Amino acid sequence: MATPPGHPSAQPEPRRRLQDIMDHDDQDDLALGTDPETSGDEADGTSVAAASRATAAPVLGEDGQPLYCTECQDQGADVRCEQCDELFCEVCCAMLHRTGKRRAHTFRPLRPDATGESPNAPVVDPTASAAQAEPGTIPTDPALKIAASEVDFNAVSGEVTFTDGDKDFSAWIGERAKFIPLRLTLAERKYLRLLEAALNVSEYTDRVDILSYGNKSRRMVTQIKDLCAILSGLLLASDYRAGRKLFEDRAFAENADFFEDIFEIGRRHKIMNPEKMRDAYGKLMYLLQDSMIPEVQDLLQFSCVKPVTTVHSYLEDLGGIDLLKDPLVAVATREIIADGKPRPRIQAETRQKEQAVETLCRKYASADLPKEAIRQCLYSIGDNHSYLRTNRDPCDKVLSYLARYFTPDNVEHADFSLAIAHGRSGARLSHDHSTQYHYVKQTLSLWREVAHEMFMLWSLADQDLLSTRNPYRLKDTGQGLNRVQASPRVSRAIHTILHRAQKSAGYWVGSSVVHLADHNVPNALMFIDKYNQVASILNPVVTCLQYLDTLPAALNITENGSHGDGIPRPAAPGTEGNGTSAGGAPVHAGTPYGSASANSSTSSFFANLSSTISSTLTSTFGGHTGNGTGSSTTGPIYTQPHYRQHARGLYQYIVQTFGSVESCKKLILADFFRYAFDGSGGDNFYDAGSCIDGRLTSAWNWCSQIEKKPYYPVFLLSGFVGFNGEGY
């Protein structure tokens, strides 16, 4: 008897799976990276077994045919829902059974290593205990005899925590290296400057992304050739010998390798430095996107695209992939941050790192793999740690402030309540204090996961943007003409990350809708650019709070509110001497900038303090050099005389305006947690609200109103420049 089409055992027609397409070497498929399913759990360092399960072949049915997920139809089935009588992969099962009556459904695992438990059950991170372990002492043995199982990369990116756990870090770093871009050499940086100069004067998008009745393919080819001509002329002007070779063969197709290399250099530089090439990178990617159109390729007669060079691919080409399996890589790539450490410890860590690098160079150097290439790979991995510290760790720090100053079950004072109501102060959501606490915590945790996987997401975005089988359409999205393009690889990856965050949270507040390929987020490039702004939003807030944390130590203020020299702390009028009024509420002066006495006491240093503090914050909060080594400051910056002088004036201003430093920090955090996560920033709930992208829209809306906040002078006096990625 024939199987009914709707029956779960009915098999679809043979089709090419997403994994097969991404692993194919065909040029049309543009296999610029690896399958996202092979890196989601491994890059997070949570489960090598989960990664192997993701790359395993689909389960076979009774007829020998592979079983695929009924929902997405491109992933192997992991479980069967007993009530729905359908097959699902892990992500789709959790998405469909997260709420409602389906939440109580039961599942039968199809794989031997599957758990079969409800997808809504919270999952404990197996590396949590390792990440919370106390750092061990730094060994001083020049031989650096450190076992691989003693190093934990899942800790804060700036530190390598020594633990007793047994963990395969070689597998972790091997998977992570597949997405870490290789650091540019000095010669490549020269070409990068030429590319930026050419893109800055190019009007590619202005000439191409318009509504016209002319032949668009010919217009694209003309603009691409114009940019190539500009690059050739700039190269000839900067290096006559190298530029002459380009003009010997006047056909651009003869110099295809040069253009592929220079465009790849720009893409690789942008991935590691998201704050660079803000205008030029969009032109570059849209130009490369058009160059992959078959009609344009026929007219252009050469390719402009090559895979981005990563640490893994570079070592694989040179036959040095075994380098990533060496346990000394953990020591050679660790990021050294001063952060108040004594000079002997900083020097010891620096010597250990240098010795580890030289040891690896001597051990793995060969005729095909020179020592300089090994150093370049090790420094690139170190750059990865610096990237995570700048872009991921702010989420961890804000989460720590949330846990330190707020609890979901108790409100210290009405001014510190996180409750929001629809219609008040522009809020679109209505949450009580407890709900808003969990909403903020889950949002920051999700941002943290996205920042941690950003290199993988960027690789997948490249594949979606430059795919020949995924054309875009020009559409008016309400913000001008934009290229709307489906992004299946990025969509799959972000839903996997969201699924992991929801499992960790257990109870999810708000919507789970991810906007992609619509008028909110037209394509993968916009998606990457949007989530790259998380660090630009959180870093200024963290910098201000960390600076306020140093004020008591700078002025030697004891817990009872007095200075070490016996001088009492200045108290605001009408307070009980502890920064609060008689009723216990924090004190606010009559104006946002405090009382007249506060303004007069700070007028002498207000103008020049911001620039002074801005220049010292780098060394205070972990400034680092290009090789991953932090500043060599011998002690805390707040022990220096000029810092104490400025800190005293700022401290007096804060006390007379807000009552105390702690009250000031709580007010900043309470306002941020309320109105940066209130669903505002859009014209309707679909554009803003509690959806995954609307949470970031609300944060940007809060940033645009920072000048109206009563604590804005505190931001300025702590080195704040703006939310555009500068000043931290």
TrEMBL record:
A GO molecular-function descriptor: zinc ion binding
Where do Basic and acidic residues bias regions lie? 13-24
Organism per entry? Tieghemiomyces parasiticus
Which stretches make up the B box-type domain? 64-110
Instruction: Using the UniProt annotation, give all residue ranges assigned to the region (Disordered).
Output: 1-48, 562-588
InterPro entries (alphabetical): E2_Ub-conjug_enz, E2_Ub-conjug_enz_C, Znf_B-box
Protein name per the record: B box-type domain-containing protein
UniProt-listed Pfam families:
ANCHR-like_BBOX, DUF2009
Highest taxon in the source lineage:
Eukaryota
